[in-house]
Amino acid sequence: MSFDRPLALLSLALLAALAVGYVLARRRRSRYTVLYPNVDVLRAVAPRFSARREWAVAGLVAGALALICVALAEPRVNRTTTVENATVVLVVDTSRSMLTADIAPSRLEAAKAAARAFVDRVPERLRVGIVTFAGDANVTAFPTHDHARLHDSIDAIDPFQSGGGGTAIGDALARSVELARRSFPNGLPERTAGSRPAESGVTILFLSDGRQFRGILPPEAGAALAAQAGIPVYTVALGTDRPNEQDGLFGFSQSPDRETLRRIAETTGGEFFSARSASALSSAYGDLGSRLGRTRKPTEVTYLVAAAAAAALAAALGLARLWEPVLP
């Protein structure tokens, strides 16, 4: 917690002094001259005070005053919020090797399930777009807040509708950067000083299970375009090291090019993940879904502290009236 007016907290010292004075006054014995001769009768009719009840009321009043002192200092707490106009571009490899079943039921189905979970986890204010690629890269969903539409786009991902065979990693990165630029007609948002890559206004989440065999741009060139645009790329290498040939359709099975994907993440300031199982993929997407497009920034909570002080004072007043001694 931080404070806009920290000097106002010095009022707590005055409050502490008042509390000490109150305790000392309570301990000091007062002397009275008893004029009524029948003390037993006086004891019977006199109201009985409960020290515990008195301390409870006093404690509530002291707590309310302390909260008022804190409210005067205008406190702020760090809260996780969505970056304004934050956008994530999901990039999914749809090459024939994604039909390999080393990750059940297949790499592609595991990727689609993780993408659905990612969409469900991100805040509604965050826009998500989808790019699929094999030999060519295609935009299948422009950045939107509509999660139902995104689910439909993910369900429709089909390797047999992709642009030929191969894995055009560099072209897919270039298409993703182009999509991000089109989503911000006035220019891509700049990262604030000290912010982390995950807090960027635009990020790319790139999943592939192979190495580049087709395309115009090499992966390094695509990564350079993202870096120049200030877009961090989070890469996920999907697949095991030794997939069986029979697991891939028509023999299109391969091991992921982890080193290339790692260099892409390093070049752009993102992170690299290696997913050798469906659970590892879900874990990676879940982690990113809770971080991408979010930031922690100070938020003023003076009104909350003031409300707590009012509630404490109301409780003290209510208890004092409830426990008020009444002569019979």
Describe the fold and architecture.
The protein is an alpha/beta fold and 328 residues long. 42% of the residues lie in helices and 17% in strands. The chain contains 10 helices and 9 strands. It has helices at residues 11-27, 39-45, 51-72, 107-121, 147-155, 169-183, 219-228, 258-268, 278-289, 302-322; strands at 2-3, 75-82, 87-93, 127-133, 137-144, 202-208, 233-238, 272-275, 294-300. The strands form 2 sheets. A 6-stranded mixed sheet has the order 5-4-3-6-7-8, with helices on both faces. α7 (219-228) runs parallel beside α8 (258-268). It is elongated.
Provide a concise account of the structure shown:
With 328 residues, the chain is of the alpha/beta class. It is 42% helix and 17% strand. The strands form 2 sheets. The chain has a 6-stranded mixed sheet, sandwiched between helices. It has a 3-stranded antiparallel sheet with strand order 1-2-9.
Give the mean pLDDT: 81
Series of H and E elements: EHHHEEHEEHHEHEHEHEH
Structural class: alpha/beta
Could you give a short account of the major beta sheet?
A: 6 strands, mixed
Into which percentage range does the β-strand content fall? 15-25%
Shape: elongated
First CA to last CA: what distance? 51 Å
Radius of gyration: 32 Å
Number of strands: 9
- Order of strands, widest sheet: 5-4-3-6-7-8
- The unreliable regions are none
Helix count from the secondary structure assignment: 10
Helix content: 40-55%
